[in-house]
Amino acid sequence: xxxxxxxxxxxxxxxxxxxxxxxxxxxxxxxxxxxxxxxxxxxxxxxxxxxxxxxxxxxxxxxxxxxxxxxxxxxxxxxxxxxxxxxxxxxxxxxxxxxxxxxxxxxxxxxxxxxxxxxxxxxxxxxxxxxxxxxxxxxxxxxxxxxxxxxxxxxxxxxxxxxxxxxxxxxxxxxxxxxxxxxxxxxxxxxxxxxxxxxxxxxxxxxxxxxxxxxxxxxxxxxxxxxxxxxxxxxxxxxxxxxxxxxxxxxxxxxxxxxxxxxxxxxxxxxxxxxxxxxxx
Length: 281
Fold this sequence. Notes:
Layout: H1 3-8, H2 10-40, H3 46-71, H4 76-93, H5 95-110, E1 118-121, E2 124-131, E3 135-140, E4 145-149, H6 150-155, E5 158-160, E6 166-175, H7 181-194, E7 205-211, E8 216-225, H8 229-246, H9 272-280
Antiparallel strand pairs: 1-2, 1-5, 2-3, 3-4, 6-8, 7-8
């Protein structure tokens, strides 16, 4: 049987109709999904819009494929029965995927973050690129693509770094014991006053943390908008260091005092610098 005879036969016509159904189904799925996304983006979150578009696309594709198989002579009852058995088999074989799917529905419903937010999951920090049913895609600051399974997100602590419009930067700093704490506070607060990226409300403040091994430990808190946070975080430490230098405020390094007891002999001291000088002479 040549091609013309096959196409003009009843079986050939059924095959041609099945192919047309699949192609039309694919076209309708793309158009319907695109229209749905465009209409729903005015009322839904981006991740919900994307999810709705995928549901409609794959739903139409499944209907078209089922219709095409029916056109080829497959019984609809048999197809649905086989699909049910296949679904059960896939469900047992992919319990992790099912768990991720359910976790994805919880994430979409709870909305702990949205596309474009920066989140921290464990030691990974990145921008949310996509929220799918099985996983969330992130882009880290060093431009790495990270896929986090939804089940992991449900079980982990998620920190949304950009949920609120402002953030606080905390700088821990130590000054020498001889320094006047009132003067240190004034210097730190002047740094915040003179830096335009520091917000005046909430007000910057300085907290006394305690007496450290080698220093008086303080915490300098300043607020900024989330858009300026990284720039402020990079600049404030340098500005504090320069302000301390100008005010002659010492930032001490760790000291250790060795005590040998009142009855012990003093430690012998040898001046290495003088020996080298005499040798040169």
